[in-house]
Amino acid sequence: MTDKKMDIIRALKRAGNNPISGEELGGILGISRTMVWKYMKALGEEGYVIRSSPGSGHVLVSAPDKLYPSEIMDGLDTSIIGGDIRYFDEVDSTNDVAKKMGSSSDEGTVVIAEMQDSGRGRKGGHWMSPRGGVWMSVILKPNVVPAYAPRFTLMAGVAVAKAIRGLGVEASLKWPNDVLIGDKKVCGILTEMDAECDQINFVIIGIGINVNVLIEELSEDLRSSSTSLSEIKGEELDRIAFVQALLRALEDEYIRSKTSGFDSILEEWRSLSSTIGRDVDVVTPQRIIRGKAVGITENGTLLVETAEGLEEIVAGSCIHG
Amino acid sequence: MTDKKMDIIRALKRAGNNPISGEELGGILGISRTMVWKYMKALGEEGYVIRSSPGSGHVLVSAPDKLYPSEIMDGLDTSIIGGDIRYFDEVDSTNDVAKKMGSSSDEGTVVIAEMQDSGRGRKGGHWMSPRGGVWMSVILKPNVVPAYAPRFTLMAGVAVAKAIRGLGVEASLKWPNDVLIGDKKVCGILTEMDAECDQINFVIIGIGINVNVLIEELSEDLRSSSTSLSEIKGEELDRIAFVQALLRALEDEYIRSKTSGFDSILEEWRSLSSTIGRDVDVVTPQRIIRGKAVGITENGTLLVETAEGLEEIVAGSCIHG
């Protein structure tokens, strides 16, 4: 959306139920009434409902259910994350787009889409991303070594869990990269990086959340293990408000990791986790490790107490017992 | 270069000093004499000198001094590296091009350029890449964790040193990523990766070698610490033959790392290194470590015996004493 259209929406929002005339809008934006009319028409095509009464003016009736950057940025009080938001109606994968943009983008740039055709999970797995969800990738440029990459998955998990809890829903974290409600998955996180051997150029934190997703729209094999926020709440959520809360939470955690160190985030991950304290089976390419999950390290590895002793697991699929 | 042009060059090379007629070439390639003539003209524009005598035929007199994929691939007996070679006369950075292509490219794809406008060294440093050098990036897709990335720098160093030694020039390896002749830099290696937290999607091994580079063309601050193969040999080298030898050496080391394990490469790195056994100052962002370099680990870290004991250094600039 162009800046002028954003400005019109802002002016209309500010005016609330008081009509603003085309002349007044033109004055605020420094454009002609003809241009105001053109933008109004374009806004209507984008799904904004604007009531126009000859002689009095225009009133914004409703905004479309779209993740438009102008809507997300309106009232977003972050200083790093969301300074630049790139919107796509449909995209292969927001992580792939973010990766291509990464080196030339500002830290905190967000790529967001209404749907993904080839959303990815860990190790190239497919991630279903129908309309109604929030599919986004955040570009960060921390000055750290590649070995720290798993920290961003943990950090994002904490932020997502907090944003969901802000809606009054009990979300928990499942190692390594899922957010659950009860025992069902509502969100997956895929952190990727572009790095030299000893320094990350940038990380991409991919976050996919079933917000207003109809579970029947997911493939059959996923339905029994997945849920969505709308299914839990029994109503559709305001996705814009949710994304704003999530970006806010992400920024809070990111700043916390920089100022207070990663330990406090790790501590919170543990307390939000439904994996720790649980009997688990962890499937790795080599074998299945069975035992009780007793902790997580700052490198993101899971500690499992097995019959043979304590095991530290770098990567695997975790099945809660 | 199109396949047909490559086929013409191959046919001419095979014929040596025996002229081939346009009709004969057309027959071999399955195209008309008019098309043969068109391709001949295009080849002339690319710098190939072809002597054509009416009535007898065509003889290849000389190929241009260009790193054309068709020339590199002609006689290249590798099975992984160089199966696909992308050529640029001028490019910002071959690593950047390779990074963008990485996920959709075959393992072993090479990006090569006559010059780079924004060649990069470690930590975003500039790398001067004038004409005459070999500036290339190799895409590998090993199934390993991100922590193994430094191994590819060491592996490439061994391959470059061997390729240079194949010319009868004593090259040595300087930690972490340079190849020296005497105490002057002839090559730098920049390994980058696209990775998930626990798995590399692909690595890019960037290799910049001053082959036929005039040292006077480098910026003044680099001249005293740099050399080129042509300076050492006192004559220009056949860059195509050198690139072929290098790709061959890279593939040998890569296969060795997969079949015999990384230890044998590490052992060779040590024996080719002029850092090990040397008094060094290692400059890190935090401090300068002074001591004797006594070893290197499989993670690419340098072991330095200091007055205070043994130090393991992950990253830094090494100054040979």
From TrEMBL, chains A, B:
Listed GO biological process terms: regulation of DNA-templated transcription
Gene3D superfamilies, sorted: 2.30.30.100, Bira Bifunctional Protein, Domain 2, Winged helix-like DNA-binding domain superfamily/Winged helix DNA-binding domain
Gene Ontology CC annotation, any one: cytoplasm
Protein name: Bifunctional protein birA
Organism: Methanococcoides burtonii (strain DSM 6242 / NBRC 107633 / OCM 468 / ACE-M)
Top enzyme class: ligase
Record EC number: 6.3.4.15
NCBIfam families: birA_ligase
Record SUPFAM superfamilies: C-terminal domain of transcriptional repressors, Class II aaRS and biotin synthetases, Winged helix' DNA-binding domain
A GO term for molecular function: biotin--[biotin carboxyl-carrier protein] ligase activity
Family matches, as HAMAP family: Bifunct_BirA (MF_00978)
CDD domains for the chain: BPL
BPL/LPL catalytic domain ranges (all copies): 70-258
Pfam families documented for this protein: BPL_C (PF02237), BPL_LplA_LipB (PF03099), HTH_11 (PF08279)
Keywords: ATP-binding, Ligase, Nucleotide-binding
PROSITE patterns: BPL_LPL_CATALYTIC (PS51733)
